Amino acid sequence: MSTRSGLSLTIAAAVVALASLATPSASARTPSPSVPPASARAASGAGSAVSGRAASEPPETVVLDGDRLRRTRARVEKGDRRLALALRRLTARADNWLDQGPWTVVDKPKPAPGGDVHDYLSQAPYWWPSRPATADNPWGCPYIQRDGQRNPEVDTGTDRQDVEKVFDSTYDLALAWYYTGEKRYAVKASQVLRTWFLDPATRMNPNLDHGQFIPCKYDGRAIGVIDFSQSYTSVLDAIALLDTGAPGWSRRDRAAMLAWNTGYRDWLTDSAFGKEEGAARNNHGTFYDMQLAALAYATGDKDLARRTVLAARGLRVDPQIAADGSQPQELARTRSWHYSTFDLVAYTRLAAVARKVGVDLWAYRGPDGQSLFKAVGYLLPAATGAEPWSHPELEFHRFAATDVVHAAADAGDRAAVPGLEAPPGGDLWELRPAAEQLDSIAG
Question: Cα–Cα distance between 287 and 125 in angstroms, integer?
Fold first, then answer.
């Protein structure tokens, strides 16, 4: 939808509205004095816009390596021909977003069950009606589960597709601005972020109380947290890139976004749904830890980020990765290849956050020799095309493992990189060296 008239409201009102929602409870944490410089600077000079490009300082990114991004940008500026094709592909993606959006949670046909229009709403993707719809039973209830088979209903009437566009567009646009300096990319990314998260008329409440609801059964479920866990860390990195001096992104925006992220972080740790998702023993638990560690780091709670990473060794790696590197919970799925690579996206991004707080998750070895290197190694024969994937998979795509193999290569094991298959649209690893789920299916 187009930006509503509410966008004319002052940014100051947005900050006030967000601050009231993010007021710490007894169990909430106040950002420590070690708030990343970009966030700390947001507290001062709140009325003035950021200008110029901070070429001398690396971005305070959360998953992406800021120093590496700065070095890569220097290569781009010197005309490095090895990066030219990847840059064209990245800017093509960014160009595609320029005439789309912005999006907002308030334009769905119906508000979340039991909630208000500002609450995020999504529908469980693998649940289907068991009966024909009638006047007395318009949903066709009860709903039954078909694992790995996506119900097309989930793409209409909820916020799921729109929020994915918010995540993807802000990431592509912020990266394109960082590497090219073209104002239009930064301005568009800023508009998308303000509309979804900050403007009082269009903003989302910082909770996922109504994620992945099941008609006639649940108004929301803890499992819905993964709607954000999958990609929200890309938004955190996009914000960090904009914070280096993007035109159209003000200090007030930065302060308001910090308030939103703090409120959402505390919802993850304190709500019943957040706690339940954190207790999950499959990819949901891994993604929860990755998202929480990243949010903690981005909001200045580096102690929470470090505790989360350290706990993940025994809580995630030990029970989830077998001695041979397989992931038994993911192999049991009808999309075993997808979910094996999917879980490793979370692990490799978590390992990237871990480096920021002095923990080498790649070096960890479990009691049976489990490690991230072994888990990636288990995928290598299929990832390189040397052997077929021998487990159930409804839709095998070899390129799904490309990013996690890149991550392992950066961590020290480069043996399989020449045999990788580029994903559709090309391999962008050199410009955004953080794993994505390349064969993505929502859910």
Answer: 18
**Please, are residues 383 and 401 in contact by the beta-carbon 8 Å criterion?**
yes
Q: pTM (2 decimals)?
A: 0.85
Q: How many CB atoms are closer than 10 A to CB 440?
A: 15
- How distant, in Å, are the alpha carbons of 18, 76, 220, 409 from that of 208? 16, 39, 8, 35
362-370 contact pairs (CB < 8 A, 24+): 362/408, 362/411, 362/412, 364/313, 364/317, 366/313, 366/314, 366/317, 366/318, 366/321, 367/318, 368/318, 368/322, 368/323, 369/323, 370/317, 370/318, 370/321, 370/322, 370/323, 370/325
Q: Which of the 8 DSSP states describes residue 241?
A: H
pLDDT confidence of residue 34: 35
Of 58-62, 71-75, 157-161, the one with minimum mean pLDDT is 157-161
CB of 100 closer than 8 Å to CB of 165: yes
Residues 319, 285: Cα–Cα separation, whole Å: 11
Burial group, residue 358, by CB count within 10 angstroms (0-12, 13-18, 19+)? exposed
Residues near 79 by beta carbon (within 8 Å), at least 6 away in sequence: none
Q: Which residues pair with 144 in a beta bridge?
A: 128
The answer, yes or no, to whether residue 31 has pLDDT greater than 50, is no
pLDDT in tens, 325-343: 999 999 999 999 999 999 9
| pLDDT given at position 17 | 40
Distance CA 336, CA 422 (A): 20
Euclidean distance between CA atoms 232 and 284, whole angstroms:
14
pLDDT band for position 29 (cuts 50, 70, 90):
very low
Q: Which residue has the tokens 């160009």?
A: 95
Burial 79-95 (b: 16+ CB within 10 A, else e): eeeebeebbeebbebbb
Predicted local distance difference test score (pLDDT) of residue 431: 98
Calculate Rg over the CA atoms of the chain: 21
The closest of 225, 283, 232, 220 to 261, measured between CA atoms, is 232
- Determine the longest span between alpha carbons in the chain, in angstroms: 67
